[in-house]
Design brief:
Helix content is 34%, strand content 14%. It is α/β, with parallel strands linked by helices and 560 residues long. The protein has 2 domains: 3-220, 3-Layer(aba) Sandwich (Rossmann fold); 240-246 and 256-504, pyruvate-formate lyase- activating enzyme (Alpha-Beta Horseshoe), CATH 3.80.30.20. Helix 11 packs parallel to helix 12 (320-330). It is globular.
Length: 560
C-alpha cells in the first residue's frame, strides 16, 4: 500500500477520533519533505502529539537534519488509543505527519527516550509501523532504529529493540550518523556489518555487539570495532545554527503553548539526586545576542505571546540581568510574557522578579526538594529556609500569581522530623500567601537515577512513601494551598526500569502487548499488568529496588 493511499483511506474517518489535528499534518512552519531526497529520517516521539510537539530537543534535531542537502526529516507520534484501534481496523501503518509516509519506508527512525514509562509506547509504535520489535529480527530492508535522549545513558531494558543508541548531544553527532548511513557501501551492507560500522562512531552504542553478564555487567563480545566504554557526545558550543527562528506551530495545543528558547545547557549545582545535572556537563551558555535574535524571530514567525527560557537552572545564567533588560527593551509593547522552569530560590533576584514584558506574570517554580536544612545539606541543595521565604515573598510582592514548590520524599537519610520540618515550612509559606495568590506544592518519591551520586541508594517501600506523603500534607492547611503528588506505585515502575537490565525487555513486551503504550497517562497505566509481567519474568523483582552495594556491577557502567 502506498503512503498516499493510506492517508486517503483515513481521511474520511478522522472525525471518528479525538482531536484529528494530531494526525493531519500541515502545521505552520512545518518542513515540506523533499520528494527527491536520497535519505529519509523520521523522528518518532513515543507519546501523543501534544506532548511530543512541545519537546524542544526534536525541534533542534528537526531543524539541523532538514538543513542537510538531499535529506528529508519528518516526524511521527504515538497515536491515542482510539486512533490505534482505527488504524488496526483499517490496516493502516503508522505514518509521518508531514507526508503520510509509513515509517517502514524510511531509511532510519530516531526515537527519543525521555522517560522510562515511554518504553511500552516504543514497542506499540513499532507494532503499528509493522517493524519487528527486536533488532535481531529485522531484515536488510527494515529501517534502522536509533535511540537517544536521557534514558540512552542507561538503556539496557530496551536494548534488544534498538539497532543503536546515540548517547549525548545530537547536534553534531546525528548528522555524522546520517552521513554514514546514507553512504552506498553502508546501504548495501548486511545488518550486522551496519552495526559494526555504526559502532565505530564516537558516542554510538550498538547493543548487539555487547553481551550482558550474569551479574548484570555488560561487556563486549570480543569485537575490536566497538569501544569498550561508550563516551557521550558533547557539543562544546551552543551555536546559533542549531536553533530555528521558525518552530512548528501545532494544530492542536501542545503541552507548552509558547516559544521555547534554550539559554544554557548543563548545571554546576551538583545536587546528589539529580541525573540531568550529571548527564549534561559541562555548563555551556549561549550569547545574549543569539538568544534575543531567536526570541524576536520566533515570536514574529509563530504568533505566540509567551517565551520560555529553557535550561536546568535558568537563574544561574551568568548574563541573566543583561538578557532580561534586552528582552524588555526589544519586546516592549508586545504584551508578551516570560515563563521560567524551576529555579533555585537563592538566585531569584529582584531584577528577575520585576521583569515585565507587558503580559501576564502567571507563576514561578522553586525546587526545594527537602523540608529540613539538614536533609537539604545531605543532597547538596544549599538552601536556607530564610532564602526560600524571601524568594516567595518577592515573587508575590512583584506580581507573580502563583508560586509552585517541588518536594521529594524517600531521600537517603530522611527521617520523620525532616517531614515535619517540611510541613512547618509549608505552613509558614501558606501564612504569607496573599489573597488571590496561590501556593502549589508538588511531592514526588525519590527515584535513584543512573549516573547520579545517589544511583546506588534504595527505592523506599511504597507503603512507607505514602505514609510520609500523608504525614506531610496532613499538617498543611489553607485555602490558598493546593497540593498534588506523584503516585509511589508509578515511581516504583520508573525506578525498576531506570536501574534494570535486559531481563526487563520481556516485561516491557508483555505490558506493550496488553495495553496501548500510553503508560505516562494515569488513566492508561495498568499497574496490575506491570506486576503480573514482573512476577512472570523476574521472580523476586522487589530485590532490584534495594540499595546496590559498592563494588557491585551497574547496568550502565559501559556508558559514560
Amino acid at each position: 500500500m502506498t503512503f498516499e493511499n493510506q492517508r486517503l483511506k483515513l481521511s474520511g474517518r478522522l472525525t471518528m477520533v479525538q482531536r484529528p489535528g494530531r494526525y493531519t499534518g500541515g502545521e505552520y512552519n512545518a518542513v515540506r519533505p523533499d520528494p527527491e531526497a536520497d535519505f529519509r529520517f523520521c523522528l518518532l516521539f513515543p507519546d501523543i502529539y501534544e506532548i511530543g510537539v512541545s519537546y524542544h530537543g526534536y525541534s533542534i534535531l528537526y531543524h539541523v537534519l532538514n538543513r542537510m542537502e538531499g535529506l528529508s526529516c519528518e516526524r511521527s507520534y504515538l497515536p491515542w488509543r482510539d486512533m490505534q484501534s482505527l488504524m488496526h481496523n483499517e490496516g493502516v501503518r503508522l505514518f509521518s505527519i508531514e507526508s503520510g509516509r509509513p515509517l517502514q519506508d524510511f531509511d532510519a527512525v530516531g526515537i527519543t527516550l525521555q522517560t522510562e514509562l515511554h518504553y511500552p509506547g516504543i514497542l506499540r509504535a513499532l507494532d503499528l509501523a509493522g517493524i519487528p520489535r527486536r533488532s535481531s529480527e529485522r531484515g536488510r530492508d527494515d529501517p534502522l532504529i536509533i535511540g537517544g535522549g536521557p534514558c540512552a545513558f542507561h538503556p539496557e531494558p530496551v536494548a534488544p529493540f534498538f539497532d543503536a543508541f546515540l548517547v549525548g548531544d545530537g547536534e553534531e553527532a546525528l548528522p555524522e550518523l546520517v552521513q554514514l548511513m546514507r553512504c552506498r557501501e553502508f546501504r548495501s551492507a548486511s545488518r550486522r556489518d551496519k552495526w559494526l560500522q555504526l559502532a565505530r562512531l564516537e558516542g554510538v552504542y550498538v547493543p548487539e555487539l555487547y553481551t550482558p553478564g550474569p551479574n548484570g555487567s555488560v561487556g563486549l563480545t570480543g569485537l575490536d570495532t566497538a569501544s569498550r566504554r561508550v563516551r557521550a557526545r558533547v557539543v562544546t558550543e551552543l551555536k546559533a545554527q542549531y536553533y530555528t527562528g521558525s518552530p512548528v506551530v501545532p494544530l492542536v495545543r501542545g503541552a507548552h503553548d509558547r516559544l521555547t528558547v534554550e539559554i544554557m545547557r548543563g548545571c554546576s549545582r551538583g545536587c546528589r539526586f539529580c541525573q540531568a545535572g550529571m548527564l549534561h556537563r559541562p555548563v555551556r551558555e549561549r550569547p545574549v545576542a543569539d538568544i534575543i535574535d531567536q526570541v524576536v524571530k520566533g515570536l514574529d514567525a509563530t504568533g505566540w505571546d509567551e517565551v520560555g527560557l529553557l535550561s536546568l537552572s535558568t537563574s544561574d545564567y551568568s548574563c541573566l540581568d543583561d538578557l532580561l533588560a534586552a528582552l524588555m527593551s526589544r519586546l516592549s509593547g508586545r504584551r508578551a510574557s516570560l515563563a521560567f522552569p524551576s529555579l533555585h530560590p537563592t538566585t531569584f533576584s529582584e531584577e528577575m522578579a520585576r521583569v515585565d514584558l507587558g503580559g501576564r506574570k502567571s507563576g514561578v517554580t522553586f525546587a526545594v526538594e527537602a523540608g529540613s536544612r539538614r536533609l537539604r545539606n545531605v543532597i547538596n541543595k544549599g538552601l536556607s529556609e530564610e532564602a526560600l521565604v524571601e524568594a516567595v515573598e518577592r515573587a508575590y510582592r512583584l506580581g507573580w500569581k502563583t508560586v509552585k514548590l517541588y518536594f521529594m520524599v524517600g531521600l537517603p537519610t530522611e527521617r520523620m522530623d525532616d517531614i515535619d520540618e517540611g510541613a512547618r515550612l509549608l505552613q509558614r509559606l501558606a501564612r504569607i500567601t496573599p489573597y488571590r495568590r496561590e501556593l502549589h506544592v508538588s511531592v514526588s518519591p525519590f527515584i535513584p537515577k543512573p549516573h547520579s551520586v545517589f544511583a546506588r541508594e534504595e527505592f523506599l517501600d511504597v507503603v512507607e512513601l505514602r505514609r510520609r506523603i500523608r504525614r506531610l500534607y496532613s499538617r498543611v492547611s489553607g485555602r490558598r494551598v493546593k497540593t498534588s503528588w506523584h503516585d509511589p506505585e508509578t515511581s516504583l515502575i520508573e525506578a525498576l526500569l531506570a536501574r534494570g537490565s535486559r531481563r526487563l525487555s520481556g516485561v516491557i513486551s508483555r505490558v506493550a502487548d496488553g495495553g496501548y503504550g500510553l503508560d505516562c497517562w494515569n488513566d492508561m497505566l495498568d499497574l496490575s499488568l506491570w506486576h503480573s509481567a514482573l512476577d512472570e519474568h523476574i521472580p523476586g523483582w522487589h530485590e532490584l529496588l534495594k540499595a546496590i552495594p559498592e563494588g557491585s556491577a551497574l547496568n550502565w557502567a559501559h556508558i559514560s
